[in-house]
Amino acid sequence: MCFFAVSQYTTTFITSSRNSKLRGSASGDDFFTSRVPAKEELGRAGWTILHRISSKFSKEPDNEEKKNMKQFLTLFAKLYPCPDCAKHFQQYIEKHPPAIDSNEGLMKWMCKAHNEVNERNHKDVFPCKMDDLITRWGACGCDEDESVTISKILERRRRSREH
Ligand SMILES: Cc1cc2nc3c(=O)[nH]c(=O)nc-3n(C[C@H](O)[C@H](O)[C@H](O)COP(=O)(O)OP(=O)(O)OC[C@H]3O[C@@H](n4cnc5c(N)ncnc54)[C@H](O)[C@@H]3O)c2cc1C
């Protein structure tokens, strides 16, 4: 009886401390019960990383940086875990080679690539103007300078609306 009680207590303790370690992602989700992301959620995450990486790309990339970006996009399109989307993105890249000569060029290219999917899904297209792109994707709170740039752009936009 005593042995049973001790062993029951030990099992409960180990299980609950194991679970408490495995819980606690930033979103508060449980690691075991979180859903597998649906196509839409995957898409939003995918575009977030693509637009953010584009906005951080060098203004004047050297050959190594260009090569890395080309490889990254080619592999992303190949490995993206939604077969239809991956196929469409690969075809888009084939038909419209990524503009890897500058950060501005790449941000606009990515915007057009995203708009192609938006149009196919009968959604609004995003204005691929630099101010709008920088305002939407320019800062993630990872770098203080980015926030300063965003503030300047917003201020410039506010002034131009007033005149
Ligand atoms: C590489 C890739 C290919 C995909 N291919 C397909 C496909 O073939 N078929 C399919 O059904 N789904 C596809 N998806 C998913 C689809 O594009 C959407 O992500 C998904 O439907 C969710 O849409 P959403 O309206 O929530 O916002 P999303 O389209 O994911 O957009 C997220 C946010 O990005 C901003 N945004 C929107 N358009 C632009 C733009 N042009 N430039 C900059 N910012 C913008 C907006 O603020 C928006 O809220 C693909 C996703 C990726 C990453």
Q: Please, could you describe this protein's structure?
A:
The structure is a single chain. The N terminus is likely disordered. The protein is mainly α. The protein has 7 helices and no strands. The radius of gyration is 23 Å and the shape is globular. It has a domain of 68 residues: Up-down Bundle (Four Helix Bundle (Hemerythrin (Met), subunit A)). α3 packs antiparallel against α4. The longest helix has 21 residues. The site of flavin-adenine dinucleotide (FAD) has 20 residues, from α2, α4 and α5.
Biggest beta sheet attributes = none
Distance between the termini: 85 Å
Number of helices: 7
CATH C-level name of the domain at 60-127: Mainly Alpha
**Would you identify the regions where 5 or more consecutive residues have pLDDT less than 50?**
1-6, 9-25
Rough shape? globular
List the ions, cofactors and other small molecules found in this model: flavin-adenine dinucleotide
Structural class: mainly alpha
Architecture per CATH nomenclature, i.e. the level-2 architecture of the domain at 60-127: Up-down Bundle
Rg over alpha carbons: 23 Å
Number of strands: 0
**Helicity level, as a percent range?**
55-70%
CATH superfamily of the domain at 60-127: ERV/ALR sulfhydryl oxidase domain
Strand and helix order: HHHHHHH
CATH topology title of the domain at 60-127: Four Helix Bundle (Hemerythrin (Met), subunit A)
Proportion of strand residues: under 5%
Keywords:
163 residues, mainly alpha, Four Helix Bundle (Hemerythrin (Met), subunit A), 7 helices, globular, disordered N terminus, binds flavin-adenine dinucleotide
